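Re: weekly structure request thread

Next one in the queue (261 aa):
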Amino acid sequence: MSGQAAGDSVGPTDTEPSVEFILSLGYAKNIGRDLIHTVRAPVFWTGKDWTAFTVRTLAVAGTMTFLDRPVKDLSQNVRGDFTNHVADRFDRFGLNYPSWVFGGFYLGGWVTGNSTAKEVGLDGFAAMLISSNIITPFLKRAFGRLRPYRNAGTLNLKPFTGHDSFPSGHATRAFTMASVIASHYDQWWIKWTVYGIAGLVAFSRVNYNVHWASDVLAGAFIGIAVGQTVVKINHRVRMAASVYPSPEGAGAGLSLGIPFN
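Done, posted below.
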């Protein structure tokens, strides 16, 4: 659950130019590259990365053991029209809204020539596919945790039985969206806005009593880690692709392509 990318390893395809068209075969290959780098990222983690992973894992385990029940009880005790109204407004940011958001960034960047906005869309779709369509579904099946509304206890796990509370898919999608956008922009208000929205998605899942607090915490960590990793991988590829061989008279040199959008 660390947010670090896979070291400094560069494979044969890592210096290929980034793909601009989202429906191209080249973009599909880029997603495959991102998936491979994300899965093998722990091989290249430093001590700092392993410390972050350990801290986050212990945070999830501690929440599952000591906080899930009191958080569930508190959320249901205070649940009312206001909390339901807030949850209703933001829950879809953990469902289909991230796809619309990334599509908007990509199309806006394509129309206006804004490379950063276009990259948010490209990185976002790749990160969301990896986090919420591969990693989280696998963990859901592997843990088989019962949802809180079943009143079966916080540590009731039945692997590969179809129970799918842990981790939260909504939280995974929302925090993937937030981490990709926040990784591309330095403005504090953008970071606060996107992570605030993601936090309200996590709140909505606990409010609805369909997820434990540790479910949404794990989903958040997965979304952040995958989003940051994919952005870092693709940034390195784009930077590598901007330096290319160029003939200089009888010799040879390097040309540096720098995007200004």
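Helices lie at 25-39, 47-78, 81-90, 97-112, 115-143, 169-184, 188-207, 213-241. The CA atoms of residues 148 and 195 lie 25 Å apart.
Next request, please.
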